[in-house]
Write a structure and sequence with these properties.
Rossmann fold, five-stranded parallel beta sheet, 5 helices
Length: 136
């Protein structure tokens, strides 16, 4: 594990990483750990992520856009509509993707995504997006 770069206000929040790729989840988890974040749940598909959101107090969701089945934007729509028993419909959602097309970015904003970050994820870019989404 990499050393903590700095203890950050981000450390107090609870995170959910939704990505079908285990390596991508590890990269994000490692970046979060550099800010002292320890409370991270992971899901490799939207169904598991929905169960976590129903049963755990999550403060922010980092979701991959390109996943089989339910995409990241479709997942964001489910959350915002409170479907499947999700209670925290206002949880900040950050899309993590390789897709930088303006159409996709605008579509993400239209379904209630707070921030958008491009893979590969750098810790500095992730920190900036999280601080903005969480208002810290």
């Amino acid at each position: 594990m990499r050393p903590v770069i700095e203890e950050s206000p981000l450390a107090k929040f609870r995170y959910l990483i939704l990505d079908d790729d285990s390596f991508s989840r590890t990269v994000i988890r490692t970046a979060l750990s550099q800010f002292g974040v320890r409370n991270v749940s992971e899901a490799n598909n939207a169904i598991k992520a929905i169960e976590i959101l129903k049963n755990e107090p999550i403060d922010v969701v980092l979701v991959d856009q390109e996943m089989p089945g339910i995409t990241g934007l479709e997942f964001a729509q489910l959350v915002r509509r409170g479907e499947e028993g999700i209670h925290n419909v206002n949880v900040p959602i950050i899309v993590v993707t390789v897709n930088t097309a303006q159409k996709t970015v605008l579509q993400a904003k239209s379904v209630g995504v707070q921030e958008y970050i491009v893979k590969p994820v750098s810790p500095i870019a992730l920190k900036k997006r999280l601080e903005k989404a969480l208002r810290v």
